[in-house]
Amino acid sequence: xxxxxxxxxxxxxxxxxxxxxxxxxxxxxxxxxxxxxxxxxxxxxxxxxxxxxxxxxxxxxxxxxxxxxxxxxxxxxxxxxxxxxxxxxxxxxxxxxxxxxxxxxxxxxxxxxxxxxxxxxxxxxxxxxxxxxxxxxxxxxxxxxxxxxxxxxxxxxxxxxxxxxxxxxxxxxxxxxxxxxxxxxxxxxxxxxxxxxxxxxxxxxxxxxxxxxxxxxxxxxxxxxxxxxxxxxxxxxxxxxxxxxxxxxxxxxxxxxxxxxxxxxxxxxxxxxxxxxxxxxxxxxxxxxxxxxxxxxxxxxxxxxxxxxxxxxxxxxxxxxxxxxxxxxxxxxxxxxxxxxxxxxx
Length: 346
Known about the structure:
Radius of gyration: 20 Å
Largest sheet: 7 strands, parallel
Number of domains: 1
Low-confidence stretches: 167-174
Helix content: 25-40%
Strand order of the largest sheet: 8-9-10-12-13-14-15
Number of helices: 14
Number of strands: 15
């Protein structure tokens, strides 16, 4: 497909698509949804050095190139043509019993986005709103939206305006608001560190302001505290995160240490060094070369979050035969075990 105007400084390509909703996503294993996810693109306007999506997209690059896409995945934006129309068609193809679960049963939860940010700019905000409306109007599912943007309040307000028969002041207690859960993602509270490896993303301080606005207006919220780096004082980090993100006003808190795949490790280390955070890069390199050090880093991060997030915690941890015993002990108190030993299709 033809390249069109840039988005967040990146060239944009729109490609044909057959699906926007994945009804059986592996994100169910992370407890972010009950199965379905939706994504209107496959390359993000942001440029996070630690992003694992480029490594996942390697197999699709020949197809994308055949459809006019040029450039490295992290340097471009890829959108799916007619995303809203495709999503509506997918939803309406499902049986009514699936689209409308019985009263009193756990709700279906759809998560967005596994591949790109849902609110990286106002164009994507509007598209996300349209996709949410497609779900809200044709199902009784809940929706979980995660972003590194500070524009989620825009999504909430636009959905409010679209909710017939419900005034803005009442929206946080009625209508669509009861079915949308908003979350921001950050692994640090330091604007400078975040800027080092989250190129193009809004300041962490702005994201915190946005989630607090949502909380103050009664919207459902959650947190994604990741990726967090090795550090000296995990307890202080976890406590400060709790205070700044106001966990007491959130439903859940997901957390994870940095999950580096493909070239993302090299990019992240280089980004930290380039921004003057050499000691942080050194610590990351150190733990990456020693399995015991990496495990200590993961456990210390988890235990600190468990202390301060309490029953809200959902800590994502990939396990193997060497550490599954330790992590299994905490499976009922915040640890979400991932990997082939737990899920055969992981």
